[in-house]
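Risk register update: the risk of archive-format incompatibility is retired. Evidence:
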Amino acid sequence: MKNANVFSGCASQTRRQFLRCATASLAGGVILWPLAPSLLAADRKAKIRVGSCRLDLAQTKEAGLEGMELPIRDSGEKLQLSDPAVRQGYKRQMQETGVVISSLMMGLLNTNPLASDPRAPGWLEQSIDAAKDLGARVILVAFFGKGDLRQPDGKLKPEEVDMAIKRVQAAAPRAKDAGVILALENTLSAKQNVEILERIGSAAVKIYYDVGNSTRNGYDVATEIRFLKDRIACIHFKDGKSYLGEGEIKFEPIAAAIKDIGYQGWIVLETSDPSKNSVADAKRNAAYIRQLFGITS
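Archived output:
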């Protein structure tokens, strides 16, 4: 009853006020997990946020970032993240740091492709369930390395594409029910990706756009972003070994395109560490992004 009374004072408040009140209630012993990450993510959905896929939660906090993209690299029949005890550990860390897990990155699919590994559909289902539990709204479904859907001449690999589409289609209803987006990241053009999305035919499947990969593959990044529009679920920023804004990529027109499509979500750093200090370099790159988008808080 004491815990119920604590929350009764929050019930009539706005979402932001509720979150402040609920956070304060933690000191009184109220346990919000796994609800709190979802609420935090929902509360912040109306602006661009900056995260990283190269730092752990403690480092992310130290760098002043808001979220962490959690990589999934193990390839056992059961993913480590499918273990409730493992997820509980991440929940404790989120509570301690105030940093959310914004997305999951299925990097294991680069060596164990979705289109060919018989374990991959199960991994996708496990990742969806884990994302829901952790409050992460996006799962990066990777198609690089052995999982690349493109031939050296730029044409698609038809059999691999067909199987990837089939397996994503099968997982899409589960993702929709969980409130999770399956975000495809690959070497394909925006046009090729839209054709694949149309074949999949689910609002729970979108594109994870990487400005560094697209630049390296010769695509006009700003034009592609405007073409994809709301099909973009999340964005990676990187520029080889350089700090953002100091390398080959011109980020101003990219930022203009992102603003033009009204993108609201995560920009995730996949940047290198020129100084060999990952936290300091992430902080520097995040400051550049915030300046680029006029983010003051």
